[in-house]
Design a protein that fits this description.
Layout: E1 5-9, H1 25-35, E2 40-45, E3 65-68, E4 73-76, E5 79-82, H2 88-100, E6 105-109, E7 113-115, H3 120-130, E8 135-136, E9 148-156, H4 157-166, E10 170-174, E11 178-184, H5 189-200, E12 207-211, H6 217-221, E13 225-228, H7 234-239, E14 242-243, H8 251-258
Parallel strand pairs: 1-2, 1-12, 2-3, 7-8, 12-13, 13-14
Antiparallel strand pairs: 3-4, 4-5, 6-7, 6-9, 9-11, 10-11
Length: about 260
């Protein structure tokens, strides 16, 4: 019997092309073929939560599971697992400081997605990019009894640097030139993958990861083979085992062929 192979795919910039707001046809064809192989398990590994998967939900049938909210929200064979919540005092302090600095904060808990308030920039991100209706607190207090799994910080990178220094108990993963995911220190896509590996028993050498962002770097470190998209961030490019073409030029499909997975 063949050992199981596990493939972990980031969404934005890897599976999903934001320029066309779609999954490339070559990628869809690859996912369909791979999902039918009895020795291959496919996983989404993303900073997005399940509620913000958007159009990716149309292809849910192809995947064995999901490593979401950067490892804080895991679904395996339809069973849900959650990571460590962020300390209540830190939640309160971060909300207070971001509000004073007029930086919108997305708050992801097990049961909801809420915004502290909207600015023009964060509203644009949610309506044009994430396309998910959320509960706008509009400066009203957040219920601290609801454990927070992850934050989305809507701020420029130089502003994010201030928060990184102010909150050493938190892990920050920049989206690119703007915005960041915020998690408890030590939590990441890697911790989620390790949890999945423990449950499913995959051998590390049979695990592959594909991504393009800073939050994929730690994921690359815990699999046997890592691949960065040609459009990846400098950190992701530097940490991957090899680099494929851009998403706009069938990069994921080409990587799967090169790895002889197709």
């Amino acid at each position: 019997m063949q050992a199981k192979i596990a493939l972990f795919f980031d969404i934005d910039g890897t599976l999903f092309d934001s320029s066309t707001k779609s999954v490339p046809s070559s990628t869809l064809n690859a996912l369909k073929i791979l999902s039918q192989k009895p020795n291959v398990d496919l996983y989404i590994s993303s900073g997005r939560s399940y509620d913000t998967l958007g159009s990716i939900k149309m292809y849910e049938e192809y995947f064995t599971g999901f490593n979401l909210s950067n490892g804080q929200e895991i679904i395996i064979d339809k069973q849900k697992y959650y990571g460590l919540p962020i300390d209540q005092k830190i939640v309160q302090d971060l909300i207070e400081i971001t509000t004073k600095k007029n930086h919108s904060l997305g708050i992801i808990s097990k049961s909801s997605i809420e915004m502290t308030f909207f600015t023009d920039e964060s509203y644009h991100n949610f309506t044009e990019y994430i396309k998910k209706e959320v509960n706008n607190l509009d400066h009203q207090p957040y219920n601290l009894q609801k454990p927070v799994l992850q934050f989305w910080l809507f701020a420029k990178n130089d502003e994010i640097a201030f928060y990184k220094e102010r909150f050493p108990q938190l892990e920050f993963f920049n989206w690119g030139r703007y915005g960041a995911d915020i998690l408890p220190a030590g939590q990441s896509k890697a911790s989620g993958i390790k949890h999945i590996q423990k449950i499913k028993g995959y051998k590390t050498e049979n695990m592959y990861a594909f991504g393009d962002g800073d939050n994929d770097v730690k994921m690359f470190e815990v699999v046997g083979t890592s691949c960065a998209m040609g459009n990846a961030s400098p950190k992701a490019l530097a940490s991957a085992d090899f680099i494929t073409d851009d998403i706009t030029n069938d990069g994921l499909f080409k990587a799967l062929v090169k790895l002889k997975l197709l």
